[in-house]
Amino acid sequence: MKKLVLALFLGLLTFTVKAQEVETILTSGKWFIESIQEKGEEPELASNKTDEWLVFSKDGKVEENHFGDSKTFSWTYDKSKKMIKLSGDETIFHRVIEISESKLIIELVEDLENSDDNLMITYIK
């Protein structure tokens, strides 16, 4: 019984530490698009990974580049919802599905009330 309680506690502690580290990991370098997947279809790999990227800054700015078209947004991270909010000409929400030092998988959420039609984007460093 003690082992079970210890395992549950360590699992909760690991999850909490990861939640606190998300912002640090996001701002640790340039994130290149590896693939895009819509509605469970096979992922479409990026044709030129060096042309599509995101860079999160600690000052709350994020720069996004798509084939030479660069835009800058403001960003915040909501730990309780595991959501990245990008604000600029429009507001975009990204739900963090997986994050590590070298991989970021997000779900683009266009409608917070009805999140059925979402796009999954995998970024790598």
Offer a quick outline of the entry.
This protein has one helix and nine strands. The protein is an alpha+beta fold and 125 residues long.
What do these coordinates show?
There is one protein chain. The protein is of the alpha+beta class and 125 residues long. It has one domain (2-124): Beta Barrel (Lipocalin), CATH 2.40.128. It is built from one helix and nine strands, in the order H-E-E-E-E-E-E-E-E-E. It has one helix at 2-26; strands spanning 30-38, 44-45, 52-56, 61-66, 69-78, 83-87, 91-99, 103-109, 119-124. It has an eight-stranded antiparallel β-barrel. The longest helix is centred in the N-terminal third of the chain and has 25 residues, at 2-26. 13% of the residues are buried. Residues 1-10 and 12-17 have low confidence and may be disordered. Pfam families: Lipocalin_4. Residues 28-106 form the Lipocalin-like domain. InterPro entries: Lipocalin-like. This is Lipocalin-like domain-containing protein. Keywords: Signal.
What distinguishing features does this structure have?
eight-stranded antiparallel β-barrel; disordered N terminus; signal; Lipocalin; alpha+beta; 125 residues; globular; Lipocalin-like
